[in-house]
Amino acid sequence: MTVEVDPSPKFAEYAHPERLVSTEWLQARLGTPGLVVVESDEDVLLYETGHIPGSVKIDWHTDLNDPIERDYINGEQFAKLVGSRGIARDTTVVIYGDKNNWWAAYALWVFTLFGHEDVRLLDGGRAKWEAEGREYTTDAPAVAPVDYPVVERDDAAIRAFKDDVLAHFGRPLIDVRSVEEYTGQRTTMPAYPEEGALRAGHIPTAQNVPWAKAVAEDGGFKPLAELNSIYRDGAGLRDGDDVIAYCRIGERSSHTWFVLTHLLGFEGVRNYDGSWTEWGSAVRVPIVKGTEPGAVPVGR
Amino acid sequence: MTERDLPDSLIQIQDDFLELDQRDRLVLLLEFANELPELPPRYAEHPDLFERVEECQSPVYIFVEVDDDRIVHLFATAPKEAPTTRGFASILAQGLSGLTVEQVLDVPDDFPNTIGLTEAVSPLRIRGMTAMLGRTKRQIREKIAA
């Protein structure tokens, strides 16, 4: 049994209002059977300093990534992970986190790879919950582990690999990194560790729309009209477009994937999680430097 | 050279982490984060003296003092929303403060990888502490050269 959808007017205009919940909605439903709240942060210790009562923690790096191969965990590992957090296949999962839900969106995208149906974001994430003075606790939640079925990951619909990107030229690409990374001044965000890309710049034809443009001042998502003006008018996306979004390791672009898919209603959006750390180090892939997207590369 | 050619303060920190299981190592890191001392007033009023460690995911500022006896004092500040970064800074502040210049410069650059946190925290995040250690040593070299 899934939990009812948040009827907030703010969400009604989005393509999939059922993918968002407000802080008020969540507050009123903490402890509801069939609902599990998940915190997913950039900082691996932030949850321990205080979290929404009853919420469980899933870490993007230590939980969702395979420890050996550069890939996500498999169906068996996912079943074990989320089952241990009390999540069943029909559980309503609400994810929130730091940095405007950047890692929360990443976790939501990974849940989607496993076809978990009812997974939502807390609009505004940790920052909004905190700004409103809502309760945090350091108490560990009492979690009763449940059985989650082993469902193999389905990468086809929402995940792109390097070869998919090479075959995608001519259709829209969105580079959601900072301007400095896009133009090739640097390979990583200001103030972030170098992650070892050997070349700087962007994938030819990619439009640069830094992910945080979708976020309003209160940390929640911007209204539909503003999102349309950013992604349709600004980046030129049109209904029916197949879009691939990328960033550095696929985290910021999962945030944009969420916006394009669930708020704007684009159906063929894929996240290229190899992103710049793969593309910027791969041999003989075309790269453009500077502020212009560049032309479709000719075959060689 | 022994396997652990480290000052006692760092050996103690290393042992404290390594004897714990992965989950408790995070708890100990959080304790370090909570113990990061407030800046002494002479620095609290002068944020301009601090150097931002660009490699860290969250803003962290460190400042090294070398006194007349060539003893190192390390000060750091990081926001409460970045407990991992605070924990790293606190480990270095507690582990390096009071050592001599030579002792600090001799600390292996990969010390952050040897305290059992790479699995609990991820190797990527550990790089933040490696960068802080590097900055600390560089500031010391600059100060003793001056």
Automatic annotation (TrEMBL), chain A:
InterPro entries: Rhodanese-like_dom, Rhodanese-like_dom_sf, Thiosulfate_sulfurtransferase, Thiosulphate_STrfase_CS. It comes from the Bacteria. PANTHER family: THIOSULFATE SULFURTRANSFERASE. It catalyses: thiosulfate + hydrogen cyanide = thiocyanate + sulfite + 2 H(+). Residues 31-138, 173-288 form the Rhodanese domain. GO terms for molecular function: thiosulfate-cyanide sulfurtransferase activity. PROSITE patterns: RHODANESE_2, RHODANESE_3. Keywords: Repeat, Transferase. Gene3D superfamilies: Rhodanese-like domain (3.40.250.10). It comes from Lacisediminihabitans profunda. This is Sulfurtransferase. SUPFAM superfamilies: Rhodanese/Cell cycle control phosphatase.
TrEMBL record, chain B:
Residues 16-138 form the Fe-S metabolism associated domain. It comes from the Bacteria. Coiled coil: none annotated. SUPFAM superfamilies: SufE/NifU (SSF82649). InterPro entries: Fe-S_metab-assoc_dom. PANTHER family: SUFE-LIKE PROTEIN 2, CHLOROPLASTIC, SULFUR ACCEPTOR PROTEIN CSDE. Belongs to the SufE family. This is SufE family protein.
